[in-house]
Amino acid sequence: MIDNFSQKTQEEVKSYVYILIDPRDNKIFYVGKGIGNRVFSHLNEAIVNPLFTEKLETIRAIKSDNLQVKHFIVKHGLEEKEALIVESVLIDFLTFRDFAEVAKISNIVAGHHSFNQGIKTVEECEILYNCEELIKEDIQHNVLVININKTYDNKRKKKTNDPVYDRPNMYEATRGWWVLDKNRAENADYVLAEYKGVIRAIFKPEKWVQNMEHRGTKRWGFEGSEVKNKEITSIYLNKEVPKIKGMANPIRYFEIN
Do residues 134 and 242 make contact, with C-beta atoms less than 8 angstroms apart? Predict the structure, then answer.
């Protein structure tokens, strides 16, 4: 089994999308994209990197059984943007909740654009593109709406210069850290997470805390829990937030008292 591509092969495959398979059960446990010898890099990472991740632990377990990870190139000869799309589709497919038996995927984040363009039921598609607007008369609580477009789509770069999209869970993307009116925040019954103009999650804040790392600027975050109560979700969840022309502030307050 080879552990690297020749220079000629690297030039010919260009950008590609690959999968790693566990030989013990022949299930896919990782999907990635890259150039050159990126597909083989995880093996060395499992040796030199002490970090605990599901991907690295799977590779270590395979090696401890004196077996070898199976590498497959799913699509090659791609431009980088094309590889990103193919990778995203594969990750979305393999991590979709109803396809749990297909793979034991260990990718930490969902594919880029998965929230808007990933696998959905027809009902979810209808919700996404035909949302009811949240009107003032419907609001029955003091609510704080936080736009999480930037914190939910947090782009960074690895040392390999491959673009990676960190997608935290909805709670972590919403809870902090924000420049806001602490008194009004503490008066809020619920925090609504707005992504791409639509309320995607509802949280009950239990405590507001200040992030001391932001020196010179008071930024606040909350500790709390997600609200699943249907009486509450039916009012706010999947509703379109009214647009205010020219508004850039991610924080909005809707108060009934």
Answer: yes
Q: Using CA atoms, how far apart are residues 58 and 37, in angstroms rounded to an integer?
A: 20
All structural domains of the chain, each given as residue ranges with its CATH number in brackets, are 7-117 (3.40.1440.10), 122-254 (no CATH)
Distances (CA, A) of 217 to 205, 212, 220: 22, 9, 10
Q: Tell me the pLDDT tens digit for each residue of 119-165.
A: 555 656 556 656 789 998 999 999 999 999 888 865 433 444 444 33
**Alpha carbons 19 and 166: distance in angstroms, whole number:** 19
- Rounded to whole angstroms, the Cα distance separating 243 from 254 reads 13
Pairing of the two strands 220-226 and 154-157: unpaired
Rounded to two decimals, the pTM is: 0.55
Report the chain's terminal Cα–Cα distance, integer Å.
69
Number of C-beta neighbours around residue 66 at 10 A: 6
Residue 215 CB contacts under 8 Å (≥ 6 apart), including other chains: none
Show Cβ contacts of residue 199 under 8 Å, excluding neighbours closer than 6 positions: 134, 145, 192, 193, 236, 237, 238, 239, 240, 241
Q: Tell me if 18 sits within 8 A of 72, measured CB to CB.
A: yes
- Return the CA Rg of the chain: 22
Cβ count near 257 (within 10 Å): 5
pLDDT tens for each residue of 157-204: 344 444 433 445 789 899 989 999 999 999 999 999 998 888 999 999
